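Help wanted!
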Amino acid sequence: MNAASDAVDGARLVLMRFSAGGVVFCADADQIESVAVFDRTVSDELVWLRDELGCAGAPVNGSPVVFTIKTGTGLPYRVVVDWMLDVCEVAGKEIRSFPPLVEPFAMEQGLWGVIFPGGRIAFLIDFLLLERGKRSLGGGEPSRSRLFAAGREAVSAGS
Amino acid sequence: MKHSHVWIAITKSAPRRHGAVKQGAMMKVTLRKKVLGLTFFSVIAIVVATSVLSIANIVSRGELRISSYREMVLSERKVQIKGYVDMAAKVMEKLPLEEAKRAVKQMRYGKNGYLWINDYNNVMIVHPDPRLEGKDQSDLKDPNGVYILREITKLCREKGEGYLRYGWKMPGQEALLPKLSYARGLPGINLIVGTGVYIDDIDKMVVQERQKVDREIWSAIVQYLLVSAVISGLLLVGAAVLIKKFITGPVEAITDTIKNFNNDLTKTVPVLTEDEIGELACWLNEHISELRKVIGMVSEVTENIFSYSGTISSSMEQQSDFATQLSSSVVEISSTMEEFSSTAIQIAQHSQGVVARADKTLADTKHGAHEVENLTCKFNEISQDLHSNLDEIVALGRKSKEINKIMEIINTIASQTKMIAFNAALEAASAGEAGKRFGVVAVEIRRLADSVVVSTGEIEAKITEILDAVNRLVMSSEKSSLMIQEGHEYAGHTVALLTDMVDGVEETTNAAHQISLSTQQQQVASSQVVIALKDIEQGVRYSTDAIRKASAVTGELAHLSEKLKSLVMTFKLGNEQAPRESGNSGREA
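Answered by r_m:
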């Protein structure tokens, strides 16, 4: 146990809980700049999370919501999710990591942990990691967010 | 064996012929003898008849001749004595009376002939015997009682003259001899002159003449009989020849053919004449030909009868089985009819209840018609209320849709509020500790928005349910309206039907009465049917026995057809038999 892990264990994260392709995800509220109702008339540079995660065939349950992601690069990155569920706070120690066998593949999808709010499983997603992973397919170096880095370290230390 | 069958067949088929043959065998007289005998007897009869007639004619001619001879001789005597009397009368007329009397008294003729004179008082005036002169001779009579002089006087008084035959004894003889007298009245002097002669010699002359005539008659008869015998003999010989040639010869030829017939239908009877016997031969040939055809047909028919008898026998067995089944069925029917009879009695009892029920039904139907009319009025009122309710429900549905639109607006606002709350939460999260209170407010706002969304969702669901219910209610109301309209129409029809039904129920009541009577009659009829079925049962039993007997008879028929077949096979049919037998054999094969 070190200071970084203590900080993460003691921190409380504000997460946006939503669903896409029938799967519940949580994202760090710090990565989201705004939330807006999906307007079908506006379709400039929207990324459907269900398409990105390979769940395009699943039915859409609820009203789609557009997340505007803070990229810090000035480039717009707007992700459409199927249904906005709620905003919740979780402690860092409630986060679980993926098994080492599947973790590399999960990381490629921007998934970095698992929580169980209300008894239901929710995957933690890092939009920036997802966005960069997609970009890395074009040759870029993947980067991790602050929370991802801290959480990853805490998980590694705990295991 | 075959000949005995043939003999039986012939004797059975021709009993008359058999009887004739038997009778002929008993008499043992051939047709030739019969015909010859008939001819002989005919000729003899004709000859005898003609002979009898001829002999009778000859004899009668002889008798006539004898009679004529007698008359002739007697007439000569009459003329003789009349001549003497005429001569005496002329003497009496020419001479004076006394001289005339003497002359007459002395007149004689023949051996003993004399004349006498008497008056009309029967007093003898002149007579050769003087003792008689002057005496009344009225009582003079012959031994036969003939008053001689009275009759002579009577003849002369009535006719003027006349002959009288009587018997008288010749003087010196005792024998009574026939005598003929003739007298003639002399009106001028009232005297009668007469004479008489014995005519016994006439009988002798007649006897001699009869002997002569008899000899001639006998000679003529003998000649006649000889000629007749010769002619009859010639006729009989000729008749025998002709009979042989034209009658018995052809008949014997036919007889020989028939005698040697031996069921050979190929034989033909010789036709020797063109008369009835020839026609008989032709007809025999014709009938033999027909018999050949008939025997051929009989052969086929016998085959068919034999096969049919087998079929009939099997059919009779089937009929026997069927009759047995029928008997049992009739017994069942009889028991069923007895049950039916008891049921008919029950029906007759129940029909009384039906009659009462029908009367009550009539009253109920009239009451029902009145109630249905009231129901029609109620239907009209319900229809009007339903139409007004339907309008209200349509208005309610329209308003519910307006509420739904409002709820959509509210929902949109709630969604936007929720988005705002999310953004506020984001802002609060990015503000750190400073934004915690704001975050709490954002959370509450989001919860309120969620609850609004949930509430609006529930309201939408309720409104949707209300709209569905309204739609269903509208459809149900329209359907109810249609049903009420149909009910109204049905009620009208029902009123009409009930009106008709009243008549029908009345007819039903009458029919029920009639049924009651009919069931009573049916009860009687069913009892009669039961009796009839028992008779039928008895009849079926008799029929079964009859079928068994008929089956036995059919077997006997098959046996007889077999015998008939063997009999038919004894006939020779010539060339026609070959294809027929081949046909039979082919059919048997």
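OP: Thanks! One thing I noticed: The first helix of chain B runs from residue 2 to 13.
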